[in-house]
Amino acid sequence: MKRIAYIISFVNKSVNYEWTVELLNKEKFNLTFILLNNTNSYFEDFLRRNNIDTYRINYSGKKNFLTAVITTVKILRNKKIEIVHAHLFDACIIGLLAAKFIGIKKRIHTRHNATIHHQYHPNAVKYDKLINYLSTDIIAISENVKNILIDMENADSKKISIIHHGIKKSDFQHISLERIAKLKEKYHQNESKRPVIGVISRYIHWKGIQYIIPAFIKILNDFPKAHLILANAAGPYEMEIKKQLSEIPAENYTEILFEDDIFALYKLFDIFVHTPIDKYSEAFGQIYIETMAAEIPSVVTMSGIAHEFIKNQYNALVVPYNNSEEIYNSIYSLLVNKDMQKKIIENGLVDVEKLFTVDKMINELEELYEK
Who's near 6: CB < 8 A, 6+ residues apart? Predict the structure, then answer.
């Protein structure tokens, strides 16, 4: 049995990691989790409920860096870890340095960011390159990420494997009416016969929410009772987003900081919108496939994984980058054309079942661990 340590930084909740814990072959792999966080989290509670060996290192940033590395070294040694799999920026630097220091021969990191450092934090690119160097294996979650690693960071292509995120479709579809009703009550969504436009994105410039809000304001001219739900509603671009929202009547939008039952939340939406500002910003874009698994038609721009499978008017409506007018046109088209909605939902569901199953993701992970 191989002993694997997952090292993860600043995660509150992640269904992807939960599925990994649930489905990874327990006869072949023994999992330990090292969480870099300064507080308890939903994910830590999940791990402890499932009797997974879990350590939390009190970590909030650079001031805790050396202590975190030393503590990680001790845990890896005590647990006789054979494979380290690091996720997210801080965990990758700390975990891979610790693993390299004590001679762990298989050091994997999953690259979750695309060009964000190149665009917004260029001083951090040297640390991305350090992470690539420290890794014996790099998981690129899309072709987009692989190209960035090779073309922009000169990563060794022999280290890179593409493993897409997967979806456990049943979690998005077997949603009880009671769960949906509970969220409708919680977020005051009980009024019938009004379209709900859903967005699940942190308030970050490159997510493109600033182009969705003007489109929604225009939708209100056609559907005065339309409602905009913004989930994960916090982030560094918050001031600009709040200014735009001030132009919308309070009864026409809801901000949700965090919702644990993300599966039921999708069921509140009639249309889903996700519009990153360029082709590179998303490393993957989990919500492209989540919305399809949840059977909600979407309006999107092409970023991350979208380039590999999304087709305009087939499984989504695709709009140009940074274009509120076209976002409006596409939302309106979906709202008035039920046949188009039905076609997009059906085709999207087929693509998710074919390309992005969680079983496929787990099988590819297990193959990498056994190499």
Answer: 17, 20, 31, 32, 33, 34, 85, 86, 87
